[in-house]
Write a structure and sequence with these properties.
Blueprint lengths: L2 H16 L1 H19 L3 H15 L4 H11 L4 H13 L3 H12 L4 H13 L7 H12 L4 H13 L7 H13 L3 H13 L7 H12 L4 H11 L2
Helix pairs in contact: 2-3, 3-4, 5-6, 6-7, 7-8, 8-9, 9-10, 10-11, 11-12, 12-13
Length: 228
């Protein structure tokens, strides 16, 4: 046998005997487990990790913990956060998928954002009726942004019959929770007697509340209309 072939065979035997081939295979299972975990495929991640454990007798506490977390059923908050992440990345189609999952389980943040997607036509066809449906669900749970938007829809008759009385009801609910734009809007209503009896004292009250939060329009109204 030629010297080169003898050296090659010796090298192969050495590699096999030292377990380098096997170690590479083990690492592949571990790497695949990590890959599937990143993709959210809990079952494949666990399967690859179990093969790794069976072949090596070793465990990885951190990986096991993450697999266990992955296997837990997602909460509505988890679904909302996924939706918000897609929304912030401007992938509105996927955002709507996850917002809907959470919204249908009663999660108010997701209900509002799903309504807003319908309102703006982001990830779904624009549908003001559906926007109001989801704004209302969130508003009834006390979500101030939804209360403000529901008031806005009532005031302008967007997706619902125009009703200034109802508009004031929902603007007030949002304003009482510290929503600056709703506070300013109430100030405007009281100043103009729009949807409420004209009341300059109340106008000042709500302008001030909004101004204290830095609302530019409220500050300007106080200065121009009341000399503050």
């Amino acid at each position: 046998m030629k010297p080169i072939k003898i050296l090659l065979l010796t090298a192969i035997l050495l590699i096999c005997n030292t377990g380098l081939f096997a170690q590479s295979e083990y690492d592949n299972y571990l790497q695949n487990a990590e890959k599937h975990l990143r993709e959210g495929n809990c079952e494949k991640a666990e399967s690859n990790y179990n093969v790794y454990k069976g072949m090596t007798g070793k465990t990885n506490a951190d990986l096991q913990k993450r697999i266990d977390e992955c296997k837990k059923p997602p909460t509505p908050e988890d679904d909302y956060k996924k939706g918000k992440d897609f929304y912030d990345k401007k992938d509105y189609t996927q955002a709507v998928v996850w917002f809907r999952k959470a919204a249908e389980q009663g999660y108010s943040n997701a209900q509002f954002y799903l309504g807003y997607c319908y309102y703006c036509g982001r990830g779904v066809s624009e549908d003001n009726t559906q926007a109001v449906v989801w704004f209302r669900k969130a508003a009834e749970q006390g979500y101030s942004d939804a209360q403000y938007h529901l008031g806005y829809c009532y005031y302008f008759g967007i997706g619902v019959s125009k009703d200034k009385t109802q508009a004031v009801v929902w603007f007030r609910k949002a304003a009482e929770q510290g929503h600056a734009e709703a506070q300013y809007t109430l100030g405007v209503f009281y100043y103009n007697g729009d949807g409420v009896s004209q009341d300059y004292t109340q106008a000042v009250v709500w302008y001030r509340k909004a101004a204290e939060q830095g609302h530019a329009g409220a500050k300007s109204s106080l200065k121009e209309k009341f000399g503050e």
